[in-house]
Structure formats: structure tokens, C-alpha cells
């Protein structure tokens, strides 16, 4: 049983990266794969070394890391992270969208209205949750909600009042989790569902 009194949240430190990457890889059910441990290690190193662009927190239980969240708070990178929407660069935008969403370029073009919606809502007050996970054995215990609420408080302190997140069509538990936190689905691109919350 989880003891919430022994669960706390703090900023990600460099010394946490190996543990966070390994746990996240397991949570993705792809430990050690090309898109698992090596990729996640580099990713969390990038987050940790760019504090002006990312907020990163870990959640610990009895001094053991059981989850983490990383959010992009730089408006330009928010657009890049969501759909590769780089103003004035249609080619790069399409290429990034194809890579991120694994869609054919023609399919991306059919979603211009979705791209426009997100362009219109990405401001200097927007953020994008690029990574979030809780160790499977600690899920459904309110820890993910606690982590997100902690994140929202810090976003408000950084004058951010709009948060985007995306998840796969098959990841129904994640979709239900975001809806529980009052995120609203604003777009579907291929198998990717995009949610937004005003905090």
C-alpha cells in the first residue's frame, strides 16, 4: 500500500536521470530498446540542462523515484514539440509532423485547421507536457494527480495558464486521466489525441 505521507515531489537532478530513464523505459514496456533507455536518457539530460525551457519534477516514495513529469515552457519549443509548427517554415513543420505523428505528408495537409487551432493557442503563456509517467505499481493511487497539481502550481508561478498534452488513441487510461484533470480534447491527428487545459 502506498503511504502518501512518504510521497513527495521535487525538481529533477542530474543524479536522477539514470533512474528516471530506466523507470520510464519500463513504463513504456520497451526497456533497453532504441526508443527506450538510451533515447530517454538523452531526453532527460536535455530537459535537465535547459531549465529555462523545461520544468522537470520527480515524485519519490520512501526516497525512491516512482514517476516524473517534464513540461516545455518555451513558447517556440512548445509549438515544435506539439506538431513541429515552426512559423515561416512549412517544410520543416511538415517533416517534423510526419516524424512525430508517423503520418503521410498528404494526411498532414488535410489537418490544416488543426494546425491553425494550435498555432492560435500557442502563446508565451502556453506549455506542453512532453513526458509524464508513474511506475505501474503506483498507478491509480492519486500520485499522478498529485504530480500534475504540483506542476500546475509551478506553471502559474511562471505565468503559464494553458497546457497542452497528447496521447495515443489506444491509450484510453491516459485519456481518462487527462479528462479527470479537466483537459479537453481539441484535436485528433492520426492516432494522436491532443488535449488542452487552462489553469
Overview of the molecule:
There is one protein chain. With 199 residues, the protein is an alpha+beta fold. It has one domain: Gcn5-related N-acetyltransferase (GNAT) (Aminopeptidase, 3-Layer(aba) Sandwich), CATH 3.40.630. Helix content is 42%, strand content 26%. It contains eight helices and seven strands, in the order βααββααααβαβαββ. It has helices spanning 17-27, 37-48, 75-83, 90-101, 105-109, 112-121, 143-157, 172-180, and strands spanning 7-11, 54-61, 64-72, 126-134, 162-168, 184-189, 192-198. A seven-stranded mixed β-sheet has the order 1-2-3-4-5-7-6, sandwiched between helices. α1 (17-27) packs across α2 (37-48). Residues 30-34, 82-95 and 103-110 have low confidence and may be disordered.
Strand arrangement within the widest β-sheet reads: 1-2-3-4-5-7-6
The name of the CATH topology is Aminopeptidase
CATH superfamily label: Gcn5-related N-acetyltransferase (GNAT)
Which stretches are poorly predicted, pLDDT < 50 over at least 5 residues? Answer: 30-34, 82-95, 103-110
- Summing up helix and strand content along with how strands pair, one would put the structural category as alpha+beta
Provide mean pLDDT, rounded. 78
Amino acid at each position: 500500500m502506498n503511504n502518501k505521507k512518504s510521497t513527495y515531489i521535487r525538481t529533477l537532478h542530474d543524479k536522477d536521470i539514470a533512474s528516471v530513464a530506466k523507470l520510464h523505459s519500463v513504463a513504456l514496456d520497451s526497456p533497453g530498446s532504441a526508443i527506450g533507455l538510451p533515447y530517454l536518457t538523452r531526453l532527460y539530460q536535455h530537459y535537465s540542462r535547459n531549465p529555462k525551457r523545461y520544468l522537470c519534477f520527480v515524485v519519490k516514495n520512501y526516497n525512491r523515484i516512482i514517476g516524473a513529469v517534464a513540461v516545455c515552457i518555451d513558447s517556440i519549443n512548445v509549438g515544435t514539440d506539439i506538431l513541429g509548427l515552426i512559423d515561416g517554415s512549412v517544410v520543416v513543420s511538415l517533416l517534423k509532423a510526419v516524424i512525430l505523428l508517423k503520418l503521410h505528408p498528404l494526411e498532414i495537409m488535410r489537418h490544416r485547421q488543426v494546425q491553425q487551432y494550435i498555432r492560435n493557442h500557442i502563446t508565451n503563456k502556453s506549455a506542453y507536457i512532453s513526458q509524464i509517467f508513474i511506475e505501474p505499481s503506483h498507478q491509480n493511487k492519486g500520485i499522478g494527480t498529485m504530480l500534475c497539481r504540483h506542476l500546475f502550481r509551478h506553471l502559474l508561478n511562471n505565468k503559464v495558464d494553458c497546457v497542452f498534452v497528447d496521447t495515443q488513441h489506444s491509450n484510453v487510461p491516459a485519456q481518462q486521466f487527462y479528462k479527470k484533470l479537466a483537459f479537453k480534447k481539441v484535436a485528433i491527428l492520426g492516432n494522436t489525441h491532443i488535449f488542452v487545459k487552462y489553469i
